[in-house]
Write a structure and sequence with these properties.
InterPro entries: ARR-like (IPR045279), CheY-like_superfamily (IPR011006), Sig_transdc_resp-reg_receiver (IPR001789). One of its GO terms (biological process) is phosphorelay signal transduction system. Keywords: Phosphoprotein, Transcription, Transcription regulation, Two-component regulatory system. This protein has a single domain, classed as Response regulator (Rossmann fold). The protein is 43% helix and 12% strand. It contains eight helices and five strands; from the N terminus they run H-E-H-E-H-E-H-E-H-E-H-H-H. Helix 4 links the parallel strand 3 and strand 4. Helix 3 packs parallel to helix 4.
Length: 198
Amino acid sequence: MAVEMALATTMATETQFHVLAVDDCLIDRKLIERLLKTSSYQVTAVDSGSKALEFLGLNGENELRDSEPASVSPDPYHQHIEINMIITDYCMPGMTGYDLLKKIKESKYFKDIPVVIMSSENVPSRINRCLKEGAEEFFLKPVQLSDVNKLRPHLMKGRCKEEEEEEDQPNNKRKGMEEIVNSPDRTRTRYNDGLEVV
């Protein structure tokens, strides 16, 4: 029974990963969206870096419009949507994928969100530059299911970081409740009446 509950919990958390896909090409955007959905990810797709920043609630100065916590958009339609990863095309008009990566990594709220860059051009200097700036992966287009399968470890690592940060917060309600419940005056003393277990 406990194993079934753990498995159900694991499966439930795996389906909760939400990826923001950014690509100016409709065909590539639909392809990455379909691959991600096939792998049980929730997907939001936008067609530019500026729309990605808008979705995240970042303005041009790389600050949140309100003081909402990370991964919450101030847009009422997108309230309480958590983004676990951003996958973006490199070559886009206006803001490139590299520019978007830099904005994300400079943000104090979103810097820990894994970012993956994709491009149809295999340019080693571009790939190295993105990886040095903090990209988790660099995929060559067309992106395939085998590429999408490489995302899960980065998502799990990101989730672990989020959980660690939650535990470190002084006003963490769950941690406070656990401390109250497990306090010595809230637990019963166990006596074994001197019986010895053989």
